[in-house]
Every structure is written in structure tokens, then in C-alpha cells.
Design goal:
The structure is a homodimer. Helices cover 31% and strands 18% of the residues of chain A. By secondary structure, the first copy, chain A, is α/β, with parallel strands linked by helices. In chain A, the strands form three sheets. In chain A, strands 10-9-8-17-16-15-14-13 form an eight-stranded parallel beta sheet. Chain A is elongated and about 85 Å long.
Chain lengths: 542, 542
């Protein structure tokens, strides 16, 4: 008989920080104590953990399809998830293989975890989408999910329940968990333009995203600084615009690999091709795409945003986004639209003439809207939805009702959330979560304390907030420092977007996150420390 | 005939940042341009680079002892330095080994670098010291050093002159360089107590220190949080005080390895055993070493600084520092002495009584001085010199004339430098170089702009400033993030301490440092980027 009460998990895993009795020490040091929720991160919606514990052996433990499951052994998504989580749990216990045949079996052993999927097998090969159901019911010891969307988080939760007892044996307490995300869109933005990010770095961070139940990789793939996307239709864009045409590009095969790696972990890949600003690198390979700037009556030799007055611009965009719509399977594309500087447009006599013809007066926002409007029509014709940065909304561009407005400007984000949702648009929040801004100390707490629905608005408006994204812009990060800078700081955002609204206890979060970060380290991810502490198995790299 | 004029090095190595003509882009972006000094870092004292260039092949190029050199092939310090620098220069060009026998020889090939040492061969096995002569004269293609202390920087400079031409061929321009450090003491402080640093991490950072011509590793090895130093005399200190007695300690063999690895690179290892504060972890393994704190008339169960009123304390310290004096060959030990909190001492009735007996009144600084004075006598008897943090000086402790006072307190460091040197003490500066404090953007510039002699004082006083240290305290760094957080930010400090006083051009520094950081990356060190940019060979890790 299992009694389900919320009880202390006997965690030998990372006993964590020192318990110093430092009366004479002035600094306020966070003191680690074991949370009653052990190392669960992000905290599932409903958790009951029993006192009864079981042991798991690497030689006999299996993750299997439940009999009632609609999934077959041919579903590679499931099979690879089972292997991945087996590896996470037993990866460091390889020495025990020889004990397989000569150990006595033990009634307190847990021999299998069953996975029961209700939805049809055909979904196995599909892509996660904005409407994926990620809910999961966990009983001892059965993961029951309606849809494939719940597999990733269900197995992650199970693996987070496993701990090492004092003899180093893998153990698990029986538990009942009912889980689903609070917000549907939980993203990480990485920027591969300001610094090129080797595929290896992207994959490692997708893997870490899955450990934190993030489900959207917002790939800010190109920008002013470089154009690493190798386009089949316009190969000269990366040929001329990448930092290097061979070593610093993403080939179609690379992109495919990223998308499949993400799919297996329940992660959507949404590429961003930001226009009309942030496009200096596009201009190198695509003649006449950018606006020639003038100084006085002569072209200065430099270029501004995309030239919105030429038909060739729209021909190019139509072809380009047709390619994008086939390369990226997700239903959405991020179209940018932020930070358009009008200086160059203003200097150009042809643009001035066009402004007159269109009766735009001096309002260059109208010209920007003219461009964006045509772009949105082009992208709509490729059957994709789109996300845009908040300026596009602020400037009054006509948007489809299902447009997602991405709020990023800091100070006024509460007001902006109000007005975007009052206008009936779906929105995601990034303003408080620009992780490229660093400061001394435990800034994860700042990210953790954000409440995305803390703005004035009706319940209907609040429902339009489908989530948020942690953004790590690339000015100061590349392969050398990206991963430890992102984790576990982004983990704070992960819990805010997944767990219930009332999960706000900073002390309990510190305790669980300390263990979660050591678990990431043990899985090979260089997640940086929260504070003075140690992990039983320190990072093996440099 | 070589004409020596200062000329542009044709650097294909990391052509660096984008040259965007971004008229319409608001952010002030640093623009990379090749420096006339190429990628030299820190800048040598006198540099003349000729137009004439030579090619180097991995198959035939050799670093050899000059005929006049006093060094023999049995000097392992030299032999390992030759190998290390050969590897740095040709490590990525292994594919060319097969071309050895069937290539034609070329008159413009450089076949060898000669190394000419004047000082006796017997010095080969010695340790670098505070009086080591690191000067070096470099002619095409001969490194002439008086003493072994010049080898490291001489070879580093030579390797920094080598670049890849547009065909990928390793090339070098003839040059004449006269080099010596401006300051004798150029250190990095790493803290292995707040987080344990695996040996691998320490060695990688010693290696990087050598690339930046740092010559002191200040090993802040123990502190409140943990005691990872395994003492032969008092093994219970780490047995009880380390995070883990096996996985999180430095054994005698580990310490020996660190010291030898450093020696081969011209780096001194100065350990810090900070007392009487910062000693919580000592108290776990050494009964009665720390002061019992009282609440009211009863011991509270917690402990304060080292107990200065017991004879057993001084017996312990005498034995302990006798061991330290044999384990660490350097002539100096750092004895700490910072941040002593008097609360616990004040609460203890035995201490109160002692204060009365000694006529110290209420001035607990006198008690602190009493302790430190006795400690200094103990350490003096082990034939070591010592460094102490500035509070020990501030509190008026009697110091030996050759004591080095370490200035670390921020705001008033100019005044402190004045008063320390006015009192006739040698000093090193760290106050402006606490690299654990991070902020957004290019903070290396802030470290670079520091002028250590910018305080009021006579020329005699200025001569007492023998250098400085960049400190990376351990609250927020461990194996996951230490290396990219330290480099290239510490490189800014390296140039300030090595190069001439008038080397202050931030633009030129940016250009050279961008290349230097890519060189560190190419040598396998995850040195983080200065700004949007790329390296031809990005970091291969995650």
C-alpha cells in the first residue's frame, strides 16, 4: 500500500551547499535545504510523493510501451526518447553491466516504466505545434499521455524523480503527478548572426531546453552582422553575407538536423528573418535589395533598410519566403520588424518621391507599414502564420487575427501587454528576459519573479498571452561562453512559464534549482553555479 | 637586407569583425582594423617589424639551442617549451607531414629559431622568483635571453609573430624586439574554496596565463566554504573541511603537478592560507582552533575567527606553515588577514578576560594584530616572505620591511597606495581588478584604463609598486564558466602590467586583443568574444 503524502526526498545527489554556522559572517548567504519536491524543475502542476521507494538497476530497468498504448515499436521518436532517458539515468553507472546475471532479484526493485499513449501512432512522425497537448499523467510507474507532446515532459519528470541513495543505488519514490504547462509557448532565442554558433552548440542547447521543458527554439538566424543561412534559391546571400561561406554557414542538411533533433524533444523551430531593418548582411549578396543612402545629392555608398519601393524587392521576398516555408515545417515564421531607422530612407530622393505619390507626408512609419503589409501578404500566401516584434503592432500595420505580437521593450512592457491584448492579438513576452544583459549575483531571481499576466486587462486579454521567450542576443556570446551564460538563468524562465502561478517561493526554487543545475552538469551541460557550492560530479570540461 | 620599419602585418588570421557601412545603425560598434602590431599581446616594449617575410613549414622548422647558448639538451624546461610552441604554431597543420620529402626547398623558408641563453645551465631546474629576469631580446631569428625567466615570453612573442598568409602558409615577418615587463608581479587569483576547481581547469588557466605573460598564480586555496588542501600533517582538515574528502581535494601529487606545470611556464605559485577570518572550514577538522561564539553566558554552538588566545593555536600554525613552506617552493606565502569580524570575539568571556589582561581596552584590532604578529613570526621562522591583505597594514601590525601589502579595497585604493608606499612597503594592486564583478558590455576597457601608479607619491614610492593581480573570486564560477569569464578580460590586466606606461590606445588594443582572443580559442581555450565577430576556427567545445 502506498501512502501518498508530500514527503522529503532522501537526496544524496548533490547535498549541495555548505551548512556553515557563520554568525560572524556578514554576507547573506543562501542556505541550501532539501526541498520536499526534491530536484523537480520546473515544478509539475500537481505532485504527491510517497514514502515508499524502489531501486532501479541499469541491467534490468526498461522503459516500455504499455499494452494499451497506441504506439508501436516503429515509432523512432519514442524509442530514441527511451534511450536518451535511460542514458541520463544510468549513463554514469556503466560498471554494473557485469552484475546482470549473478545478482539476486529484489522485490523492491522497479523493473519498468510503462508509457501509454492514447493518440494514434501516425502522430509519431509529426512536428510539435502551437496546439500540441503536452499534458501528462504520471502514476507509479506509468506515464500516461494523450498525445506525443506529453512524452518529453513525462520522461523528464520521471528521470528527475530518480536519485542516488547513500549507497549510490538509483532509487525512486512512488509518486502521483498531474502535469501540464501553464503557457503554451516557452521559447529560447539564440542569435547566430552576431556570432556564428556551431551546430554542436545549438544541439547541446536544444538538449538542455528539453531538460527544462522549453518547447520553442526561436532561431534568430541572420541579422546585420552575418547571413549564415545557406539558401538554395539565393546561395549568394551566404556566399557574400556569411562571415565565411564554408565554415560559418548552415547548410540545408544542418538545418534539417537541427529541426529533427528539436522534433525528437518536442521542440518547435521558428526561424526569424528580420526585415526591413537588421539586413546589412543581406545586401552583400542581393544587389538592389537595400536602400542606397544619400549624402546630399549623391549616393554615399552605404545602405539602409530593405528598399520598399521596388517591385524586385517583393519578387525576391516571395521567392525567399517560399523556400523558408518548405525548409521550416513549423506553422509560424518570425518576421522581425524591429528597430527600423528612417535616416537612410529620408536621404534617398526616390524614396522621397514615392512618399509623395503615396500621400505618406513625412510619416515614415507609413512607409514601413506599406512594406510590412506586403510582406505579410506574401508570407500568408505560403500558408504560414507569423510572429512580429512589437513595433509592427505599435505602428498600426494591419495584422491577421492570428498574428503573434512579440513584446520586447523593457520599461513599458506592462502597458504594451495591455494594449496588444486589448486589440485582440495573441502575444508572447520577452521584455524582462533579455539574458544577454548580465550583472553580478543571482539574477535568476529577477527573471523568476516576473509574472507575465501582471498587467491591466480582462480575463479574455490574459488568455491571449500564450507564453514568453528568454532571449540571448549574440553580441557577447559565442561557442566559448553561450551555454554557461544561458543555464541555469533560463531555467528560471522555464519554471515561470511551465509551473502554476503560485509557485513563487524563492527559497524553495533555490533548493530545487541547485540540484537541477548539478543534474544538467552531470548530463554534460556546463550550467553555471547559483552560488558557492559543489556538485558530486563536477563538469569535466574546461 | 632587411629594412626595419613599422609596417602592417598581412594578417589573414582572423580578419575579424565585419566592416559594415552602417550609416543608419545607431549603436556605436567598435570597428576592427589590423593593428600595425598585428596580434602581439601584451605589446612588447620595443617592436620593429620589417616588410620581409619568411615561410615556416611544419616538416622542417625547428626551435634549437644557439651554439653560444649555455643550455644543454638535458634542460627539460627548454625542451618542453620548444615542443609547446611548435604545437601552438603547427598544431592544426598536421596534414602536411607527408609533404616532407617531396617538396622543393625554398630560399624564403625560415628553417629555425635559435634560442640563446647566457645564464648557467644549472638554473634550468630552478623556480621562478620575485627577482627573475624576464627580459628578452629578439632578432631575426634568434631569441636571446640572459636568464631562464625570459624563455616563456620570448617564445610566446615569436609565436605571436607567426601568421597564416592568404594560402594558409605559416609566415613571419622579420622583426627586432626588445622586451621586458614593466612590473615584476603579474598575477591571477583563483579561488578553489567557494567552488572546487578540478586540476584540469587550473592547468588550462596556467597555460592561458603564460600566453598572456602572467607570472604569478595566487592560489586562494581554502576559505570558509571548503578546505580542499590535503595536508600531510593535518589530514583531518580536508577530511572534514572539503566538500568531499576524495573527489574535492588537492592531494600532494596534485599540488606538485600544478607547481611543476607552472614552473615550466615561468609562473610562480603563491598559496594563500587566509587567517584569522575566512576559516570556517578549518574548524571542522581542527578542534579548538576557532573561537566559540557565545549568546549570553552560553556557547551558541557556532564559531568565529581563529582563537588567538590559546597556545594550541600557535602550535598548530607553526606545524601547518612548516609543511606549507616545504610543499610550496616559492619564497612567499600569502597570509590573508582580511575581513576579520569581531562579533564572535566580543561575545566570548575568555577573550574578554584576555583583552583586559593585555590592556587592549575595547580595541579588537589590537587582538587581531596580536594574532597576526605571532603568525608572521612563525612564518618568518620558516624562511618565507609574506603577502598580506591591506587590513593588516591598516591595523598597524608590525611588518617585516620586505612584506608585500596587497591593496584590494575599491574606492580608496589611490589613497591606500599612497599610504602603504609612504610607509615604505612594497605593494601590489588588485582593487580595480576584481573580475568576479561582471557587467554588460566591454568591461575589459575599464580594466585596461587603470594606471597603477596614478596616486600621490614620490618616485621612490612608485618604485615600491611591484605589480598587481586580477582576482576571480569563486562565488559564481566553477569549472563550467571560469575560463571564458577570465579570458580575455584578464588579458587587459596583463597588458597593463607588462607593457610600457604609454600603451593606452583603446582602439589599437581592441584590434590586437580581438586577434589574441582568437589565438587563445585556436589553442583550445574558450576565451569569450569582445564583441560581434568571428574566429576562423571557432571553439570546438560547447
Amino acid at each position: 500500500m502506498l501512502k501518498f503524502v508530500s514527503l522529503l526526498l532522501a537526496l544524496s545527489f548533490c547535498q549541495g551547499l555548505q551548512h556553515n554556522n557563520i554568525d560572524d559572517y556578514v554576507e547573506a548567504e543562501p542556505v541550501f535545504e532539501a526541498s520536499k519536491y526534491g530536484s523537480l524543475w520546473p515544478l509539475p502542476q500537481k505532485v504527491q510523493i510517497s514514502e515508499v521507494s524502489f531501486k532501479l538497476t541499469s541491467s534490468s530497468f526498461r522503459i516500455v510501451d504499455a499494452k494499451a498504448s497506441s504506439a508501436g515499436p516503429s515509432c523512432s521518436l519514442l524509442q530514441s526518447a527511451y534511450r536518451r532517458y535511460y542514458e541520463y539515468m544510468f549513463g554514469s553507472a556503466k560498471k554494473q553491466w557485469w552484475s546482470k546475471n549473478n545478482r539476486r532479484s529484489d522485490p523492491s526493485d522497479l523493473s519498468e516504466l510503462q508509457v501509454w499513449i492514447t493518440s494514434p501512432d501516425s502522430e509519431c512522425d509529426g512536428y510539435p505545434s502551437v496546439t500540441s497537448d503536452e499534458s501528462c499523467e504520471y502514476l507509479p510507474f506509468l506515464v500516461h499521455v494523450m498525445f506525443y507532446g506529453g512524452i518529453q515532459s513525462g520522461l523528464e519528470t520521471f528521470s528527475q524523480l530518480v536519485f542516488e541513495d547513500e549507497y549510490g543505488a538509483k532509487s525512486i519514490n512512488a509518486a502521483i503527478i498531474n502535469d501540464f504547462p501553464r503557457f503554451q509557448h516557452r521559447g529560447i532565442l539564440l542569435d547566430s548572426s552576431r556570432h556564428f554558433l556551431p551546430i554542436k552548440v545549438i544541439l547541446a542547447n536544444l538538449e538542455t531546453m528539453a531538460m527544462n521543458k522549453f518547447n520553442v527554439f526561436h532561431w534568430h538566424i541572420v541579422d546585420d552582422q552575418s547571413f549564415p543561412y545557406l539558401s538554395r534559391t539565393f546561395p549568394q546571400l551566404s556566399e557574400q553575407g556569411a562571415y565565411h561561406p564554408y565554415t560559418h554557414v548552415y547548410t540545408p542538411a544542418d538545418v534539417k538536423m537541427v529541426i529533427e533533433f528539436a522534433r525528437l524533444r518536442g521542440i518547435r523551430v521558428i526561424p526569424e528573418f528580420d526585415t526591413p531593418g537588421h539586413t546589412q548582411s543581406w545586401g552583400k549578396g542581393q544587389k538592389d535589395l537595400l536602400t542606397p543612402c544619400y549624402s546630399g545629392s549623391k549616393p554615399s555608398g552605404s545602405f539602409g533598410p530593405v528598399n520598399p519601393i521596388l517591385n524586385t524587392t517583393y519578387d525576391f521576398m516571395a521567392q525567399f519566403f517560399t523556400e523558408i516555408s518548405t525548409v521550416f515545417p513549423d506553422g509560424y515564421v518570425h518576421l522581425g520588424g524591429d528597430e527600423v531607422d528612417f535616416t537612410c530612407w529620408k536621404s534617398n530622393p526616390d524614396i522621397q518621391k514615392f512618399m509623395e505619390q503615396q500621400h505618406f507626408g513625412d510619416d515614415y512609419r507609413k512607409l514601413e507599414s506599406f512594406y510590412i503589409q506586403k510582406l505579410l501578404d506574401i508570407v500568408t500566401s505560403t500558408k504560414k502564420g507569423y510572429l512580429i516584434w512589437q513595433e509592427v503592432f505599435d505602428n498600426g500595420v494591419k495584422l491577421k487575427p492570428d498574428t503573434v505580437v512579440h513584446v520586447w521593450i523593457g520599461g513599458g512592457s506592462d502597458k504594451e501587454m495591455s494594449s496588444v491584448t486589448a486589440a485582440g492579438y495573441t502575444t508572447i513576452l520577452s521584455a524582462p528576459w533579455y539574458l544577454d544583459y548580465i550583472s553580478y549575483g543571482q539574477d535568476w531571481q529577477k527573471y523568476y519573479k516576473v509574472e507575465p499576466l501582471n498587467f491591466e486587462g480582462t480575463d479574455e486579454q490574459k488568455k491571449l498571452v500564450i507564453g514568453g521567450e528568454a532571449c540571448l542576443w549574440g553580441e557577447y556570446v559565442d561557442a566559448t561562453n553561450l551555454t554557461p551564460r544561458l543555464w541555469p538563468r533560463a531555467s528560471a524562465v522555464a519554471e515561470r512559464l511551465w509551473s502554476a502561478k503560485d509557485v513563487t517561493d524563492i527559497g524553495d526554487a533555490f533548493n530545487r534549482l541547485s540540484l537541477h543545475r548539478c543534474r544538467m552538469v552531470e548530463r554534460g551541460i556546463p550550467a553555471e553555479p547559483l552560488f558557492s557550492s559543489y556538485c558530486p560530479h563536477e563538469y569535466k570540461g574546461v
